[in-house]
Specification:
The complex is a heterodimer of chains A (328) and B (438).
Chain A (H helix, E strand, L loop, with lengths): L8 H5 L1 H46 L20 H7 L4 H34 L7 H8 L1 H4 L2 H11 L6 H9 L15 H25 L4 H9 L4 H29 L3 H7 L10 H11 L3 H34 L1
Chain B lengths: L1 H21 L16 E7 L5 H19 L2 E7 L1 H14 L5 E5 L3 H7 L7 H6 L8 H4 L12 E6 L1 E6 H6 L9 H13 L3 E4 L5 H14 L16 H15 L15 H7 L3 E7 L2 H6 L7 E4 L16 E2 L1 E7 L6 H11 L2 H10 L7 H4 L7 H13 E2 L7 H20 L6 H14 L4
Parallel strand pairs in B: 1-2, 1-3, 6-7, 9-11
Antiparallel strand pairs in B: 3-10, 4-10, 5-7, 5-8
Classes of the chains: A mainly alpha (328), B alpha/beta (438).
Keywords (chain A): Cell membrane, Membrane, Transmembrane, Transmembrane helix, Transport
Family (chain A): Belongs to the binding-protein-dependent transport system permease family.
Membrane topology (chain A): Multi-pass membrane protein
Chain lengths: 328, 438
């Protein structure tokens, strides 16, 4: 009785070639597997990001208004006119966009700075264990965990002119203002927006910095203490330099989130934000979906994307050079 | 390896092609069909005190329609703040409801998208003909000279609601008929420690409705006869200033109302904190907030002089809700039947009573329920002294641009900054520059 019912004449003739073939197939499978596993993510990435982006760019070259939204492909080409309108700073549309850009830059710098400062201070404060630390840590994270809409609408109530908690405390109790202030309209709206943004954003900074602190060896602090370094010196010489890689990512992420934040101003002010708090994301939304100039809105979005790419690229270049220099 | 790469490239190309096709410009086709004759999707605007109230009002009527026709109507009540965006999204994607409510002031703007079924003579004949509807309501169904983009469903008009007790306490015998009288009465009311007149200073739509009426009273229009924006016309500037001056100069509107946009002024009135309210068909809203019908009176909105009428004595916009059909509906016959049902005499009476509005259908309007003194004011206003907002394609943008300008002017007034002819003109000039080229 034989165990081989069927004999492969090629294999029989050359057993070495068959082994090589098997090995080659195995290698291909092994080398191809990662690509195969990446494929679904790649396809989704294309569908979710790249395709809409390409469509957005095409739209920015079209005269896309309510007359064509039902079939935007038929909208006439307008060349660079949407871009020209957006960057003509002497005309109202460009001027308003420029104003909105500066408001957003100022708002982003202040918000990211304050989020980082408060988050870092809180993380350093929470580094040493003390009674109630866990509870406090959980409390600190509440703003980050709350749904944005619910949190911001609560702030809307608190900022009300007549019945809001903010005026009640500042005016009625502390007598800091001559008369109750308006927070949701007029110039103060910038500070209202900043307050909510920082309240919402600092717990993320806190979380990331806290994670970064875990990686700093305690021995460094003990050695520094033995050498007579005070708390501030320890923070300046050990904590901050050790946190540098973490901070580089943290600041970048906070910057992008804050610069593009739509939910906070939209829930606070509705579809027409006051001039002082006219963030660029809401401004572009208004251009596209409120005044129905979809072509101009798309052009503004492309310009914003380019700006963010340049800023992010420069930032990454500078910080990676700095890191290489310090590593070297 | 090469084969796998080729497969990956193929998959990606295919997915891109599919996506591009899927996103390729919404619904180019669409004259409607009868592919799903047994169902309809209906987006109703939020008319009642809450979405739950609307579901209670409309639910039994939709069941009635199903019994009559065998067509099941899937109802979604959409809040006003979302409605226009939802309609735009549906227009772009082609995936909208079969039948929907639209604000009547949006008719011409939405008509321009081409997404709504035109109500030509043939379609109108299926629901009983054009003559069933009140003329002023038909005036807000699309651009002049074109077939209506929708049919009127609920009609409303602005009126002056006044608190009888506060008026009596201030020694005021009758509601003011002119703005000067309103300001004088307001001072007497304020002397008694009450707020005089409410406003929604941060609501773009409310601002537009009021400045439109003020413009009419000043003999001005926001658009020229050929549909071009004309916001900086001196008479328009005067009109807008007159409205904002009720807070800035006359102080009868409290500064706090500058940030109102969620009907807080209606609550203030219902709670008896404020003596007067300019509102459209507020009875159901006031009742839901616990204010008895005996506690307030209803009078025509004041005019500059004399009594309301046509021309410069206009005292209300033609407010209301229209019913439209999405052109690419898969149940064209069912949608038409539904519109006929909703505009039938019986349904008009039921629904307009529930929402304290006036039926735009003449035969339903004759019902005794709409002849009460309160409804008589609204009915008379609609018939004699109301005007439709400009039926131009850029009406929606006009609401946003000018509504925002008035909101900013109210913010200035609230902050104590001077509101001058120049500042009003500058705000309106900015609004005009934001309008799309016609």
């Amino acid at each position: 009785m034989t165990t081989t019912a069927f004999k492969d004449p090629v294999r029989e003739a050359s057993p070495g070639a068959a082994t090589r073939e098997r090995r080659r197939t195995g290698r291909i499978r092994r080398a191809g597997l990662p690509y195969l596993l990446l494929l679904p993510a790649l396809v989704l990435e294309l569908l979710v990001h790249l395709v809409p982006m390409v469509i957005g760019i095409i739209m920015s070259f079209k005269e896309l208004t309510q007359f064509y939204i039902r079939d935007w492909g038929t909208a006439p080409w307008s060349g660079f006119s949407n871009y020209k309108v957006s960057v003509d700073f002497n005309a109202p549309v460009g001027n308003a966009l420029l104003h909105s850009f500066f408001v957003t830059v100022g708002f982003t710098l202040l918000s990211v700075g304050l989020c980082w400062l408060i988050g870092t201070a809180a993380a350093v404060f929470m580094q040493d264990s003390f009674r109630g630390r866990g509870l406090l840590r959980a409390l600190f994270l509440v703003p980050y965990a709350l749904p944005v809409y619910a949190a911001v609408i609560t702030w809307v109530f608190m900022f009300q002119h007549d019945n809001g908690l903010v005026n009640h405390v500042l005016h009625d109790q502390l007598h800091l203002t001559g008369k109750p202030s308006f927070w949701l309209i007029g110039d103060n709206s910038f500070y209202a927006l900043l307050t909510v943004s920082v309240w919402k954003g600092w717990p993320f900074a806190f979380l990331i910095v806290m994670a970064g602190l875990q990686n700093i060896p305690r021995e460094l602090y003990e050695a520094a203490a033995l050498d007579g370094a005070g708390t501030w010196q320890q923070i300046r010489r050990i904590t901050l330099p050790s946190l540098r890689p973490v901070n580089q990512v943290l600041v970048l992420v906070l910057f992008l989130w804050t610069f593009n934040d739509f939910n906070t101003p939209y829930v606070l002010f509705g579809r027409s934000a006051p001039d002082a708090a006219d963030l660029i994301s809401v401004h572009i939304y208004q251009a596209s979906f409120v005044t129905w100039n979809f072509g101009t809105g798309s052009a503004m979005s492309v310009l914003l994307l380019l700006f963010l790419l340049v800023v992010t690229g420069t930032y990454l270049l500078v910080t990676s050079r700095g890191r290489r220099a310090s590593d070297g | 390896m090469r084969r796998i790469r080729a497969a990956a490239t193929g998959a990606v190309t295919l997915s891109l092609a599919l996506a591009a096709t899927a996103c390729g410009g919404g619904s180019a086709t669409g004259g409607g069909s009868n592919d799903s004759p047994k169902t309809l999707t209906y987006w109703a605007s939020n008319q009642g005190a809450s979405i739950a109230v609307d579901q209670q009002v409309l639910g039994p009527e939709l069941t009635k329609f199903q019994k009559q026709t065998g067509i099941k109507v899937k109802l979604e009540v959409v809040p006003w703040s979302d409605l226009l965006n939802r309609i735009l999204t549906a227009t772009t994607s082609g995936q909208g409801p079969d039948v929907l409510n639209i604000g009547n002031t949006w008719s011409a703007s939405l008509q321009a998208t081409g997404a709504l079924l035109p109500w030509d003579a043939k379609n109108l004949a299926k629901i009983g003909g054009k003559d069933r509807f009140v003329d002023s309501a038909l005036g807000s169904t699309g651009a002049a000279g074109k077939d209506p983009a929708a049919v009127p469903l609920y009609s409303m008009a602005y009126a002056l609601y006044y608190n009888k007790k506060i008026f009596a306490d201030a020694g005021i015998a009758r509601p003011p008929a002119t703005w000067d009288e309103l300001v004088a009465d307001g001072k007497k009311i304020q002397a008694k420690g009450k707020s005089a007149l409410g406003a929604e200073g941060a609501s773009l739509a409310e601002n537009i409705h009021h400045v439109f009426v003020f413009a009419k009273q000043h003999g001005a229009d926001f658009f020229t006869a050929d549909g071009k924006p004309n916001f900086t016309d001196p008479k328009v500037v005067d009109a807008v200033r007159s409205y904002v001056d009720l807070m800035a100069k006359d102080k009868v509107i409290p500064a706090g109302d500058a940030e109102y946009a969620q009907n807080q002024s209606v609550s203030d009135f219902a709670k008896g904190k404020q003596a007067m309210l300019l509102w459209q068909s507020a009875a159901a809203n006031l009742k839901s907030q616990g204010m008895s019908e005996d506690a307030y009176g209803i009078a025509p909105v004041p005019v500059i002089s004399g009594t309301p009428g046509t021309g410069t004595q206009v005292n209300s916009m033609v407010a209301g809700i229209n019913l439209a059909v999405f052109k690419n509906t898969h149940n064209l016959d069912g949608a038409t039947q539904f519109v006929k049902f909703m505009t039938s005499d019986e349904e008009q009476k039921i629904l307009n009573k529930a929402y304290s509005s006036i039926p735009p259908v003449k035969s339903a309007q004759a019902d005794a329920a709409f002849g009460t003194p309160a409804n008589a004011v609204l009915k008379n206003t609609l018939a004699t002294s109301a005007a439709a907002l400009p039926q131009v394609a850029s009406e929606s943008q006009f609401e946003t641009a000018v509504g925002t300008a008035v909101k900013d002017l109210f913010a200035d007034a609230a902050a104590g900054r001077a509101v001058t002819t120049d500042s009003v003109k500058a705000a309106l000039d900015k609004a005009q520059q934001q309008m799309p080229a016609a």
